[in-house]
Design a protein that fits this description.
Layout lengths: L1 H14 L1 H23 L12 H31 L4 H5 L5 H30 L6 H28 L3 H18 L11 H8 L2 H15 L5 H13 L1
Helix pairs in contact: 1-5, 2-3, 2-5, 3-5, 3-6, 3-7, 5-6, 6-9, 6-10, 9-10
């Protein structure tokens, strides 16, 4: 079921190959410049005395995965739908709508993961990432869970409204919450205690906390993975 969707995405990518390659190389550099180069001079070390450049690296990869996922889901589930080019024609096919949505989500996850892999190469070249191959594989597993969660939320928001303004506001709010409320670039301990505790159990925050526990404390908490997965399935 997923193979035709992957072929379609590849055909679309071929039509804008140079743009895609340029974007995949430029975005990690942009994130490195506006986040890492600035904040590492302000927040030299995390509260647990981890160098900020090392501490923030998983967050940059999480952010990269989300940013590249948004336009893919937007095109498939919002833009094509409101212009009557996407879901309505597919919905009359013998394949169930749930299978179509699931295949589209998996395709978006594959494409986003490709951008993340390119980002890892760029970050290594810039000296931002200093993880072993095993650690990178663990990060990719967490990113797949994150992408599955974010894709389901994005699909839900895409089907929720047909107004572009409302949709853009929802996406921007989601992105801001992810960046500043999930511990991607700033530790949640900087927030007031009550707000920090609430944000600590956001599903994206749980994943971010889980991957940092694995990388820096060598502790695996399965609840921090299963909880976001169950929530993603529930949204779907």
């Amino acid at each position: 079921m997923i193979w035709p969707f992957l072929q379609r995405r590849w055909w679309l990518t071929q039509n804008r190959l140079i743009t895609t390659i340029g974007f995949s190389l430029a975005l990690p550099v942009f994130l490195h410049v506006i986040i890492n180069l600035v904040l590492k001079n302000i927040i030299v070390r995390s509260i647990r005395q981890i160098p900020y450049e090392t501490w923030v690296a998983p967050g940059l990869l999480f952010l990269l995965a989300t940013i590249t996922l948004i336009p893919i889901v937007y095109r498939e589930f919002f833009d094509l739908r409101i212009h009557h080019k996407g879901l309505p024609p597919i919905s009359i096919s013998p394949v169930s709508k749930l299978n179509v949505i699931f295949a589209s989500i998996l395709t978006a996850m594959v494409e986003s993961t490709f951008f993340v892999l390119v980002g890892v190469f760029v970050f290594y070249s810039l000296g931002t990432v200093h993880f072993t191959l095993l650690q990178l594989l663990i990060i990719l597993v967490y990113i797949l869970v994150l992408n599955f969660l974010n894709a389901n939320v994005l699909v839900f928001l895409s089907l929720l409204t047909e107004r572009v303004t409302i949709y853009v506001m929802l996406i921007l709010s989601m992105l801001l919450l992810l960046v500043f409320g999930s511990g991607l670039v700033v530790e949640l301990e900087f927030y007031p205690v009550i707000i920090g505790k609430i944000m600590n159990w956001l599903p994206t925050s749980a994943l971010m906390r889980g991957i940092r526990m694995v990388l820096f404390a060598h502790i695996f908490d399965w609840i921090l993975v299963v909880y976001p997965l169950l929530l993603a399935v529930g949204v779907m």
